[in-house]
Amino acid sequence: MDDLFDIFNVKAIEVEEEVSQPKKKQKIVDKNKLIKTAKRILNNEYRQNYSLTVLQDHKDIEKMYDSCLKLSYEPYSYQKISGVVIDSLFGLNKIDVSNILVSSPTGSGKTFLIKHAAVRASQTQQKLIIGVPLVALAEQTYFELKKLLKEFDKNDPEFSPVGIRTGPSEMFPDANVLVCTYEIISIELALSMDFLNNVPTVILDEIHFMTDRDRGARVEYIASSLPDSTGLIGLSGTIP
């Protein structure tokens, strides 16, 4: 996987062709073999067979949901399922650990996952890294989480349950919950994987930026560099 996404180590391959050599005969495609191969691909016989536990047993998983947020509404089904999976990432239940991708329209509650994970990180004294594309969004997320995690504040001017690193601004970089721009995370990962010590999961907000012509490589690098011990939560209001 690392080799697949290693955009910084592209090897150039030179191919020499001798004009004097006769052209090779065109290979005849065995249509029957091609159809069989296509069927094997569609039946997941050629690729990794990914677990669909969350989809198959979602009703049972919803029953395991343990709220840690004060909400004015009954959480949606996808929020409850995500909450249970987040709890598994922080070692709070025994369901299989998995990554999460949530794609839903703006205003439909995707930030629920960020808040739920932030509270769990604070409760368990583990770390959470949140990656966002814009400095303004990082600052907005930082101040919202400061308010949410007020109960974990120690009234110490040198301590905060949440920190921020964007380049232009940096406050409480050693906090358990850290909001960063994509660039900060990718630089830190390139310098040392110690950046992910005691980090059960990384949240990438607006993960569809992976397809952005200018900045997509950074998001792709982060997603493909995470070790097995760190899960990935992707949020998007754009992915269909």
Features:
240 residues, globular, alpha/beta, 9 helices
How would you describe what is shown here?
The protein is α/β, with parallel strands linked by helices and 240 residues long. The protein contains 9 helices and 7 strands. Mean pLDDT is 83; it is low at 4-17 and 47-54.
Short description:
The chain is α/β, with parallel strands linked by helices and 240 residues long. Helix content is 36%, strand content 13%. α9 links the parallel β6 and β7 (231-236).
- Cα distance spanning the termini: 25 Å
Structural class by sheet pairing and helices = alpha/beta
Main sheet? 7 strands, mixed
**Radius of gyration, Cα only, in angstroms?**
22 Å
Helical coverage, percent range? 25-40%
> How much of the sequence is in beta strands?
5-15%
Order of helices and strands: HHHHHEHEHEEEHEHE
What's the total number of strands? Answer: 7
Secondary-structure map:
Blueprint: H1 2-5, H2 31-42, H3 53-56, H4 58-63, H5 77-89, E1 100-103, H6 111-124, E2 128-132, H7 135-148, E3 162-165, E4 170-171, E5 177-181, H8 182-191, E6 201-205, H9 216-225, E7 231-236
Parallel strand pairs: 1-7, 2-5, 2-6, 3-5, 6-7
Antiparallel strand pairs: 3-4
Helix pairs in contact: 5-6, 8-9
